[in-house]
Amino acid sequence: MASNMSAVREASTVKIAGGSRFRELWPLDPEIDFLNHGSFGSCPFQVLEEQSELRMLLEREPIRFLDNELERRMDDARSVLAEFLGGRAEDLVFVPNATAGVNAVVRSLEFGPGDELLTTDHEYNACANVLRFVAERTGAKVVTAHIPLPIRDPGEVTQRILDCVTPRTRLALVDHVTSPTGLIFPIEEIVPALNERGVDTLVDGAHSPGLTPIDLDGLGAAYYTGNCHKWTCAPKGAAFLHVRSDRQHLIRPHIISHGHNTPRTDRSKFQIEFGWTGTGDPSAMLCVPGALRFMEGLLEGGWPAVMEANRALALRAREIVGAALGVEPIAPESMIGPMASFVLPDHDGEPVMPPIRFDPLKIALEREHRIQIPIFPWPQHPKRMIRLSAQLYNDLGQYDRLAAALRTLLGR
Fold first, then answer.
1. Sign (positive/negative) of CA torsion 347, 350, 352, 353?
2. What pLDDT does residue 380 have?
3. Alpha helix ranges (H) inside 68-215
4. Given this model, what pLDDT does residue 6 score?
5. Rounded to an integer, what distance in angstroms lies between the CA atom of residue 165 and that of residue 172?
6. Where would I find the beta strands (DSSP E) of 217-338?
């Protein structure tokens, strides 16, 4: 494994399309301008090497690692992550991804005919589908708050959501950072306002850890789930679910296993059930502390400096690409982190169904210009958006090339 990793390192030091001085720390394709960190992230060499070492330890003595050591190792990793997120380790469990976290919450709760499940039209489709699935089975109703673009003030988002609350609203699924539109919602206003109205909030924080500061205890949401493989740069398969202590008895993992009938009393049933859902590879979750330390050490100011550097680069990139497209920003700067989205001209072909079929413009950007960036049908075909990401390995030259490519391909 070490030799394979070295080969990837060597390949990544050849002439590259672009990138900052940090570029060599990631195993990204050297011939691609990678402007899509937001979709799946990218894990740095150092963290991948730690993961390889953990996997070798596991396979060298699986019984010792899984039966004797895993719980302690997971406890240690949860403690580090909880501190980073401003929460308590006992309220936090690992899950494979944020979609699994949403499933665990929504499919654990009991709903009935007439109950309303509230979300917005910016919600990630996979997570909105969990609401639809449960509503179809229980007779509940999904209520979708429409949040039009452009947004002039974050308070517009809060008000649009609150306007949809009724006495039948049982749960609100709200993004902290939206996926296709790349916006930071004012979750610190939304959650308390919903709490005052007796509505529990499940915060979809898939993009949030490492993108924007999080204070789980201060926020007070009943449920919060987020990914560690995106902006904290841990390996794929590392995410968390945070459940407020007064709601933990309601929530079960998406896989029922030995914890269902455990006689253990040394820790909460919540921790026991989520702590073991069956044999798997826990290395991604165990690498979370290492990923947090790695990213924190890249800039003198630690994580606040990393988040601000990425945001500053995204804001400058937003100016460059927005000017090329001739479009106005979709939201104020206060709602922008290291991602920025833009309205594109309508797609005049058949509807695209990612990942089966990609937008022709996305394909042209990749094949003809070696730029990797997502294009989403939003809110629905033929309307679409393009979303750029800014991570420490990116530089302004890459967004200049994106702007030039868009002008060429769109005839601007």
1. positive
2. 85
3. 70-85, 98-106, 125-138, 155-162, 187-196
4. 55
5. 9
6. 223-227, 239-243
Q: Decide if 219 contacts 88 (C-beta within 8 A).
A: no
* Residues β-bridged to residue 375: 386
Q: For residues 388 and 297, what is the distance between their CA atoms, to the nearest angstrom?
A: 25
Whether 387 and 373 have beta carbons less than 8 Å apart is answered as yes
Q: Which of 292, 311, 342 is the last residue of a domain?
A: 292
* DSSP character at residue 92: E
Distance CA 158, CA 368 (A): 41
- What is the residue range of 71's domain? 55-292
Contact 177, 207 (CB under 8 A): yes
* CB contact at 8 A, 162 and 193: yes
Angle at the Cα of 77 (from 290 to 50), degrees rounded to 5? Answer: 35
Query: In the prediction, which pLDDT does 45 show?
Result: 98
Write the DSSP symbol of residue 343: E
Check which CATH number belongs to the domain holding 163 and give it. 3.40.640.10
Low-confidence stretches of the chain (pLDDT beneath 50): 1-3, 7, 11-16
The candidate with the shortest Cα–Cα distance to 214, out of 232, 234, 238, is 232
Residue 128: inside a domain, yes or no? yes
Total Cβ atoms within 10 A of residue 22: 16
CA angle 241, 246, 248 (to 5 degrees): 40
316-346 pLDDT, tens digit per residue, is: 999 999 999 999 999 999 999 999 999 999 8
CB–CB of 119/144 below 8 Å? yes
